Amino acid sequence: MRLKGFTLIEIIVVILIIAILAAILIPTLAGYVSSSKLATANSNAKLAFESAATYCTSCQADDKPVPGGTYNEICLKARQIPDTYVTDGRHLEDALLSMIGSRSSASGYTSIRIDPKGLPNDARWAKKPADRYVGSYPRSASEAGSYDLSY
């Protein structure tokens, strides 16, 4: 009488097939994770740019333009988020915290360049200051490591 079950060879063949499929799929899935992190960073850079543009426009409407220059590594994580901000051209960081800041660990850092007319030229965003995935707007980053957070 023969016992029902799998032989050792059959089990080894199935394990090898699963290992080969995993070796093919894991690098593909890692590529999707990388591209999604970069897409998120680009989206957050666009949000930072639009928020800075809103603040700059409000300041110009009050005849107090934001001074041109570079605002590097503004931390968007805060214990206390301001409800309002002053549109005197000197409180860009407070305005960004008020508009897009968060207490969440998912908050990141942004760097923004303001032109001499008081309007934003471009913005970058990263989860950490030394992150590989730095998003940019209006020219979106197309691969990890193509930008640094600071200008």
Describe this structure in words.
- This protein has 151 residues and is of the alpha+beta class.
- The chain has one domain (10-137).
- It has helices spanning 8-61, 92-100; strands at residues 69-75, 109-114, 120-126, 135-137.
- A 4-stranded antiparallel beta sheet has the order 1-2-3-4.
- Helix 1 (8-61) packs across helix 2 (92-100).
- The model has no long low-confidence stretch (mean pLDDT 90).
Q: Taking strands numbered 1, 2, ... along the chain, how are they ordered across the largest sheet?
A: 1-2-3-4
Rg measurement, Å: 24 Å
Strand-residue proportion:
15-25%
Which percent range fits the helix content?
40-55%
Task: Summarize the main sheet.
Answer: 4 strands, antiparallel
Order of helices and strands: HEHEEE
- The helix tally amounts to 2
Structural class: alpha+beta
Low-confidence runs of at least 5 consecutive residues: none
Q: What global shape is seen?
A: elongated
Note the gap between the termini: 78 Å
Please give the number of β-strands: 4
Count of domain modules: 1
* Overall mean confidence score, pLDDT: 90
Short key terms for the protein model shown above:
single chain, 151 residues, alpha+beta, 4-stranded antiparallel sheet, 2 helices, 4 strands, elongated
